[in-house]
Write a structure and sequence with these properties.
This protein has 243 residues and is an all-alpha fold. The protein has 10 helices and no strands.
Length: 243
């Protein structure tokens, strides 16, 4: 039991660190900034943040949720994303145990989290992140050739669906990024479970779309990546329930 808790604490800490880097991706990529060069800086006064004020989750509470250099309020989104990184890795650890796949799968889901948040904020998906998630997913469980077959099948199926729906609805029904996400889902879950996850994502999204369109009388461009990512995570965790 003690060994398990030590492993869980280690994995959670790794996940939180990945969540911290996820914040860097969320903040810098939409701005076209390098994700490897330069230390983190205050988003308000641009002063460099010392490492001891940049400890994931802990620093936010030590600093009272304010920037030390200019005393401006720091968004709670930063520690929330870091915490979600820890949660993602912890659940993956519960599912697959301590192995290389824990880090591969955790990385894929962290990238999907980044894509989801950017999609919600900007209604855009960056190919660099999308293709990174797909590439890592291809190596999960050491089944590269099987994974790439599933990725091609599911991505291809979504591409066909995209063309048909766009033709029927007379407008863009699905983004190209969703097709790449489909490939990631196929590589990570296999063909059958990926198709289940697509159905689950539509089931989750449908009530929200109906509320927006029929109750609030809006015709919004709904970000769909968060639904695909959430459904993929749920089906991954509950895969035995869907067989």
């Amino acid at each position: 039991m003690i060994e398990f808790l030590i492993q869980l604490g280690f994995i959670f800490a790794i996940g939180v660190s990945f969540g911290s880097f996820a914040n860097v991706l969320i903040y810098r990529i939409p701005k076209g900034e390098s994700i490897t060069k330069g230390r983190s800086a205050c988003p308000f006064c641009k002063e460099k943040i010392p490492f001891y004020h940049n400890i994931p989750i802990i620093s936010y509470f030590i600093l009272g949720g304010t920037s030390k250099c200019c005393n401006k309020s720091i968004s709670p989104a930063y520690p929330i994303v870091e915490f979600l990184g820890g949660i993602i890795f912890s659940f993956v650890f519960f599912k697959v145990g301590l192995s290389v796949d824990t880090f591969l799968v955790g990385t894929v889901f962290t990238l999907l989290l980044v894509l989801s948040i950017i999609d919600i904020k900007e209604l855009v998906a960056y190919d660099s992140l999308n293709l990174a998630a797909l590439t890592v997913a291809l190596f999960v469980y050491g089944n590269f050739f099987e994974n790439i077959q599933s990725a091609l099948f599911v991505g291809g199926a979504l591409a066909f669906l995209r063309f048909y729906l766009s033709f029927i609805l007379k407008k863009e029904a699905m983004g190209e990024a969703d097709v790449i996400i489909g490939g990631t889902m196929g590589a990570l879950l296999g063909t059958k479970l990926a198709l289940v996850a697509i159905f689950v994502s539509a089931f989750i999204a449908l009530p929200i779309v109906l509320v927006l369109v029929y109750i609030l009388k809006k015709d919004p461009e709904v970000p769909f990546i968060p639904f695909l990512a959430l459904a993929t995570f749920l089906v991954f965790l509950l895969d035995t329930q869907f067989h």
